[in-house]
Fold these 2 entries.
Entry 1:
Amino acid sequence: MNLIQAILMGIVQGLSEFLPISSSAHLVFTSNFYKVFSGIPIHEQSTQEIFFDIMVHLGTLVAVMIFFRKDIIKICRALVLACRNKNWTDNEAKLGLYIILGTLLTVLVAFPLHVVAEKLVFSPAIVGGLLFITGFVLLYSEYISTHVAAKKNSVDLKTSILIGLAQGIAALPGFSRSGWTIATGLFAGLDRTTAARYSFLLSIPIIIGSSMVYPFIKIDLHEALTFNWNAILWGTVVSGIVGYLCIKYFMKFISKFSLAFFGYYCILAGIATAVFFSVYK
């Protein structure tokens, strides 16, 4: 891995983690495009590549925690007070419980899928097909949302369950985590801003878990000494900066505009990559 490749993938991760276009799919595409044009077999993935994926996810984790730091502090304080006073009527405390519940449901669904998800890294054509499906999910959620008279600005128990399950399904690369969770929120009657805010807050514990707990047990510390740490650190920093800017402007975008643009993008990108990687196997 060289510096230019790391920075490029950091930009891709920062943009695609929070936009509803599947960061995992775009990392798969970027990595495999690089391999195709560099003459490297697609079915080869080094430990350094796996570790780099972890690090750029940590970069976007820092971005979302900085952007929503006030919300995180309020929710944590509300949870502590609710536990102390045994009173769960506070909306922020309820939101904290819903995030915990949604995360547990995500793990229950995503864990059995992780073996399939890891194999799909070497099947970019299939990932393109899943991204195509994500596009239709986004478009259909917008259609449903526009036909729901009342829009909710708060998450309830049923909605948190549905969004948690959707986040679990999105463990498969090509099924956008933010896309599926925001779309599910729209299906449940949430307004776009509330659905996006909850989606990003719900991403925090699952990114922590997937980036810091499970993958690190697979990394050989002795082999890590041979990594190109300069490239890895630059990619991580870039993913964090781009991710923060992406959240900032996406929240403004989604409050005024629909997800249709991203839906059409996913459909076109899914078709293009599925065709390309079907030819260059």
Entry 2:
Amino acid sequence: MDREELLSKKVVVICGGWSDEREISRSSAGECRQALLDAGFGSVDLLDLADGDFLSRLVAGGYDVAFVAMHGRYGEDGCVQGLLEILHMPYTFSGVAASAAATEKEVAKAVYAAAGIRAPRGFDVAAGTALTDEQVDKVVESMGLPLFVKPAANGSSYGISRVTERSGINEAIRVAGSQGGRVLVEECVQGTEITVPVIGNDDPRALPVVEIVTGAEFYDLKVKYEPSAMHHVIPARLEPGVYTKAQELAVRAHRALGCRGCSRSDFIVTPAGEPIILETNTIPGMTAESLLPDSARHGGIEFPELCTLFVELALEGRA
């Protein structure tokens, strides 16, 4: 497809919804819409999944492609992708199965294991579970302290606790499970925090590795939405072999999960130089402060061109 034909496509940016990440999604969507307009697209609408007339407007809009700027439940977990599949509407980023697998952290960890990618040790429990004293003792004996307790299917650090005392484990499980679903209890891997964006469909490639530097206990909500220059070091300060290995593992995770368009895998690099994968985001944040656009910019891809590329990848292989 040539450039002129691509820019003639009518695009709808889908955002909002009902998750904890609604406002972050709307911010991403607004910036992506503007970037597509700046790139030369003539028609770019924005629809909020939570609006009462969302479906009727989507169906009646005559759109050629949907740019999915959803985060969290109903958006990043494969739900809106399923709707778009039913409507036979091409859309950006990963499909139903890859989205669902990446969102459910225990499922993703099984995929990583099969692909030879090491993840932190841990286990999941149902929301509302209270461990007995004996179970808490076994957890601490097995994985030590601190521990991370997080929702098994959420993003952007919502509901995550870094537990430093055994007495805090059950409260952390309660917080992580406050919206239902399952809860993941994981060992705390010490080292350098990095993230590796990947772009592409059948032939994905890694973008520059981003090192995340914070004064916080972990990359929490407050830090994530502060100016990127405060926390992003690009390229990451890693030994060349470790840097390359992290990129290779991120591409392997992208392929193993079946991602399309883009993904962003987060790792902790141990003092021994081993990248340990934490999770893979199938719809990374797309605001000016976000990791993937920052990495792409350092790799020579400005934001309007990046968003254009995502639309092109969404239409790849379509008649």
